[in-house]
Design brief:
The protein is mainly β and about 170 residues long. Helices cover about 0% and strands about 50% of the residues. It is built from no helices and 12 strands. The strands form 2 sheets. Strands 2-12-11-4-5-6-7 form a 7-stranded mixed sheet, with no helix packed on it. A 5-stranded antiparallel sheet has the order 1-3-10-9-8, with no helix packed on it.
């Protein structure tokens, strides 16, 4: 309380807070892919996601091949699920998920735009703050033109990185 010369006081007001400092957790983020630019098909893209609280907090790494970070029907859109250690691919209409495709297996899953290859897919690194997943894929001959490999990361707490282009794939 503060009082002026006429004995009027200002009332109580908070000037600070006692207790632990609480900050909002930072969102995960995407790192550039390896390779950053590719030509021809098939390819292997290593997608890296970073979560400052630890890679163990990353639940999924989504990808889509497109010109803009928009998921549309008839796209090559899928994800790596950390809980099942497998890849999934959406059907052409985006109404169903195909998979799981076990990493390292001889199996494939495909839609009209692309094929995911288990034999050339693997977790490259899952330590510290980074999760890197190599995804082997090929484009169908009808899915032509230059595309960006777009990526978004989802954490166990539901935070996401937002879509960003991490590589280009020309064909």
């Amino acid at each position: 309380i503060a009082q002026d010369a006429t004995s009027r006081d200002s009332g109580w007001f908070q000037i600070s807070q006692w207790g632990p400092l609480v900050t909002a957790p930072s969102p995960p983020f995407n790192l550039p892919s390896t390779p950053a630019s590719a030509t021809g098909s098939p390819q292997q893209f290593s997608l890296t996601a970073r979560e400052l609280s630890g890679a163990f907090n990353i639940s999924r790494v989504y990808f889509v091949l497109s010109v803009a970070p928009v998921v549309t029907a008839n796209s090559c859109h899928g994800f790596y699920d950390r809980g099942t250690n497998a890849l999934y691919l959406f059907n052409d209409a985006l109404t169903a998920v195909m998979g799981p495709l076990s990493l390292g297996s001889a199996n494939t899953i495909e839609n009209s735009q692309c094929t995911l290859h288990g034999s050339t897919s693997a977790v490259v690194s899952d330590a510290g703050t980074d999760l890197t997943v190599r995804i082997g894929m090929s484009r169908k001959s009808t899915f032509t033109g230059n595309k960006n490999v777009q990526q978004i990361v989802l954490t166990n707490a539901g935070r996401d990185s937002g879509w960003s282009a991490v590589a280009t794939w020309n064909q």
